[in-house]
Amino acid sequence: MVRLSRPSVQGTAWFCYVWLMLGFLTGTLVLLGPVRWLTDILRSRGYAETTENIAVDCVILLYVATSALLARWLVRRTSRCSTRIRIAVPSVLTMAAAICLWGWLNPAHLLGAAAIDDRDSISANGAQFVFGAYPERERLEQLKREGFVGVVSLQHPAVLPFEPIGIRDEKQAAQEVGLEFIHAPMLPWISTNEESLEIVRRLAASGHGKYYIHCGLGRDRTNVVKRMLEREGARVASGAGYMVPRTLEVTQDTAFERGNLRELEKDVWLLPYPNESEFFTKLLAGQVGHVTLALDPDDPTQRVWSEDAAGLLTKYAVPFDVLPLRGGDTSAARAVADMARRSAKPSAIIVGYTDPFPSFTAPAHTITTLFEANRMPSTTSASAN
Fold this sequence. Notes:
The protein is α/β, with parallel strands linked by helices. Helices cover 54% and strands 12% of the residues. It folds into 3 domains: 9-105, no CATH class; 113-236, Protein-Tyrosine Phosphatase, Chain A, CATH 3.90.190; 262-379, Protein tyrosine phosphatase superfamily (Protein-Tyrosine Phosphatase, Chain A), CATH 3.90.190.10. It starts with 8 loop residues before the first helix and ends with a helix. A 5-stranded mixed β-sheet has the order 1-2-5-3-4, sandwiched between helices.
């Protein structure tokens, strides 16, 4: 008979300790590396925020499983080594984890690895928001000298062990420096954080002066708030000092991320799917009277774009219709063209891509050809007269 040995309490405790130290080290590297790269790619390609959350959750689950397997392998290997090695390996891991803990307790020292730009700002009514990383006392004193009136902390007391300490220290330092401390705690990728976002919305609507918004490294949670303020921008800025939005005609020489803007006929425009910034600066602030979404539902990316665009257009009360367009389907393209012609002007047709993306522009070319063919008879008739 083969007798299976059970792991001892000492062995289990040893494994848990090694996993904890190794997990803290690798978790820090994953957050500063793969998670950041993944979210940057998803945002640059226009994926929905829910897609980003699911992707990050998958990366975290993979990290937990991988770190556990790596810790198990390391414990088994070191158990066959000399006493010196068995002591040295966990000692090195403990020192590395301690350095990571110190870094999280002092986020400013991680900015080099995180490559943060903390001078990005948004204005709304009488409030101006600047986004960045956790401000230590010296930074708070600098903000006070620069004329800031308050700091908005997005750190959450549930993010143990460092954020409760950071919240306590910042609150005390802000009071001593003379800055208003506003707490809007957020949990990244886990919650919709609506209560916290509502605090910032109220501040954007009624606040006056400059506010510094931060989380830890000034990345994910600050980006959520920044995107929310961009989405709310048309409404928030519609009070005193509201500026008439730039029309599509004014911006026709400015290429979109996924192609060029084109006027098909008077006040009828063909657009590639806008990225988030292009949506808010060129479509949602009164620049168009109607939008026709002519995206391909068979393309997973464009199907998500169509859902996201419908949500945004509904929220900002921009009239729109969804007319799916697959490849060079002339019949569907004709329906899109007819809808754009009879809709309120200026009218915008949104496809996935336009030139210079030749591999993805069959819908754009089909619609353009229909409009050009429609213009030809009138041109010929005018010449004859």
